[in-house]
Design goal:
Number of helices of chain B: 12
Distance between the termini of chain B: 36 Å
Distance between the termini of chain A: 23 Å
CATH class of chain B: Alpha Beta
Oligomer: heterodimer
Order of helices and strands of chain B: EHEHHEHHEHEHEHEHEHHH
CATH superfamily of chain B: Metal-dependent hydrolases
Largest sheet of chain B: 8 strands, parallel
Order of helices and strands of chain A: EHHHEEEEHHHHHHHHHHHHH
Helix content of chain A: 55-70%
Radius of gyration of chain A: 22 Å
Helix content of chain B: 25-40%
Chain lengths: 291, 326
């Protein structure tokens, strides 16, 4: 994912707007810059789909990491976004500083009245808002959302939660909820850096519950449990590595054993040639993972 | 709305076993249904029966709201959670936003709701102002009907008009007269809940005539077949208005099946059960047939996680014929 910058994004955005509406939108932006009336901000934000060229309505866009969109030193990852979402996030990045109280109130109001697509854009934009620490409760609220695309906008390919969710419990809820809702776990940004023993404990409990229900267990769970492996986790993993018919599941457990600090697991792995080859991570989702 | 007394079987007409094979391959659009009151089983069976899109008009919830926040949350759920819920079953969810006639009678609250409406009517997927109009035909109802007609005109949106149950014929005429008085193009106004008594005037005046197939209290679909035979398919559309009462979310495909059996042409059936509603509400700029032809982005590769409908992916199917739940 090559980094691109905000100026480049602005050029891209202009190309998706109906020819006769780009000037009007820029005018509104300067009006907002001069005097950011909440009503006008809401109106422009909501009306953005009406500015997009019909030919661009169905496009999906991936730029990778965008540096410098908004004031924070945190990149935004544009991955499989609609043009409307890109335009909306770019628009949000243009809202001037109004002082924390007014700025937060302005963005909060957009959240309060948002429709599904607007919510997705507002949450995808978490890394670009001013006063980044002020959005922690909003982020926690979004993680609770029942609307799949909204949750995904926060959990996957978004730098905000791992950088700014200070509370370990809130981070752990994000990861647990991602497992419950079968999100794209390997693409949760900061998954490795924010891993912790409490999370590993909760994931082990969850694995026992899934096992009792005879439901599949996402192999990434074992990768997270690995560094904090204990007797209880080991007992279940040993059972599953023998019973499992799913190669990726066996490989995840073998990898977790090999890289754990739990002697019994490392020895168990060393004694079995089969497990040594299974623990190879090439081509797995955790290939880039480093203990 | 429904009365809960036992129906005399004989009064319910001839029974024809449900056979949706008759309409297999046809696509349906239900332009009036209150999904907030329906279960996921309904969504599943609607998708199975060929319903690809629907419009959920804002209405009351069976008892009056007492505060503005519940209105806001309701409107938000129409453009948020319910839109997502429908998408999980491959159904496009649109809505109309408005202050319904019953709750227009709480004037203090109605004033606050009027201030709220502009926040929602410009949203994506909001295809009209509705359902608005008369219930008791009070002065307050008239006041807020008129104000919302002006709002629709300003926003360039179609209007979905609820006609009263009591004193229906006069209430319907009055609804149309007021719309014309405010300078609305009748082609932008959908008059709902028509009967044999109202249809002629509605069509003659150039409005769209919607019919609600709703057991016991509104239209039956045998009567609907007769109306299409008599008036033809132009500017006529069928809906279920299924809600929290005894109603039928499959009213549109069932009526289509009865029309097939009654010898009505496929072209006419497509108009009254699909196309006309799309043409009428497409005038909002928020809905077109191309959108309905696109497959909804449901990720079938993902698996369902047991405890609630939390997923981005298409929903797994319950085995309704088994006592085992797993």
């Amino acid at each position: 994912m090559n980094g691109v910058n905000a100026g480049w994004v602005a050029d891209q955005v202009a190309g998706y707007i109906k020819d006769n509406q780009w000037e009007g939108l820029k005018e509104k932006l300067s009006e907002i810059a001069r005097s950011p009336q909440p009503g006008l901000v809401a109106q422009v934000f909501t009306a953005i789909p009406r500015n997009v060229k019909p030919s661009a309505q169905q496009l999906r866009i991936s730029f990778g990491e965008v540096e410098g969109l908004g004031p924070n030193p945190v990149p935004v990852i544009v991955r499989d976004w609609s043009v409307v979402q890109l335009l909306r996030v770019w628009f949000l990045s243009q809202i001037p500083d109004l002082g924390q109280e007014a700025y937060v109130a302005l963005i909060d109001r957009l959240f309060k009245y948002s429709d599904m697509e607007e919510s997705v854009s507002l949450y995808a934009a978490l890394p670009i808002y001013r006063y980044p620490k002020a959005w922690q409760q909003r982020c926690i609220e979004g993680i609770r959302s029942n609307i799949g695309p909204v949750r995904k906008a926060i959990m996957v390919f978004n730098h905000y939660p791992s950088r700014f969710l200070e509370d370990e419990k809130a981070w752990n809820q994000l990861v647990l909820k991602a497992f419950f809702t079968d999100e794209d776990i390997p693409n949760i940004i900061g998954l490795n850096q924010r891993n912790n023993p409490n999370l590993a404990q909760a994931l082990t409990d969850y694995a026992y519950e899934r096992y009792a229900a005879k439901r599949e267990i996402n192999p990434m769970l074992w990768i997270l449990v690995g560094p904090y492996l204990d007797e209880r986790a080991f007992d279940l993993m040993e059972r599953i590595i023998i019973e499992s018919q799913i190669p990726l599941e066996q490989r995840a457990i073998a990898y977790a054993f090999k890289h754990s600090n739990y002697d019994i697991a490392r020895e168990y792995c060393a004694k079995n040639d089969r497990f040594i080859s299974l623990s190879d991570d090439s081509g797995t989702p955790w290939e880039a993972w480093e203990y | 709305m429904c009365s809960y007394h036992e129906q005399d079987r004989a009064s319910m007409g001839q029974r024809i076993a449900l056979d949706l094979e008759l309409v297999k391959g046809l696509r349906f659009f239900d332009p009036h249904i209150h999904m907030v009151s329906r279960t996921t089983d309904d969504y599943q069976s609607m998708a199975d029966a060929g319903i690809v899109g629907l419009i959920e008009p804002a209405f009351w919830l069976g008892q009056p709201r007492t505060g503005i926040d519940t209105f806001r949350d309701y409107y938000s759920s129409l453009v948020g959670w319910e839109r997502f819920r429908a998408s999980q079953f491959g159904i496009r969810h649109f809505c109309t936003i408005g202050l319904n006639s019953r709750e227009a009678n709480n004037e203090a609250l109605a004033e606050a709701v009027m201030e709220l409406l502009p926040f929602y009517i410009y949203k994506e997927g909001v295809v009209g102002v509705g359902e608005i109009g008369f219930d008791d035909q009070t002065a307050a109802e008239e006041k807020y009907y008129r104000l919302q007609l002006e709002l629709a005109k300003e926003a360039g949106l179609p209007v979905q008009v609820h006609t009263p149950h009591r004193d229906k014929t006069r209430g319907t005429s009055r609804s149309m007269d007021i719309a014309l008085e405010h300078g609305l193009d009748p082609g932008m106004v959908i008059i709902d809940h028509n009967t044999e008594e109202t249809v002629k005037e509605v069509l003659d005046k150039g409005f769209w005539a919607a019919f609600t197939i709703y057991p016991f209290t509104k239209m039956g679909n045998e009567r609907m077949v007769q109306i299409v035979k008599e008036y033809g398919p132009e500017r006529i559309m069928v809906n279920s208005a299924a809600d929290w009462g005894i109603s039928d979310p499959l009213a549109v495909p069932k009526t289509a099946a009865l029309m097939v059996k009654s010898g009505i042409s496929k072209v006419a059936i497509e108009l009254v059960c699909y196309k006309n509603a799309i043409t009428a509400f497409a005038q909002s700029g928020q809905l077109d047939e191309g959108l309905l032809n696109e497959k909804i982005d449901v990720d079938q590769g993902q698996k369902f996680e047991g405890n609630s409908i939390l997923r981005g992916g298409q929903q797994p199917r319950r085995d309704t014929g088994s006592i085992i739940i797993s």
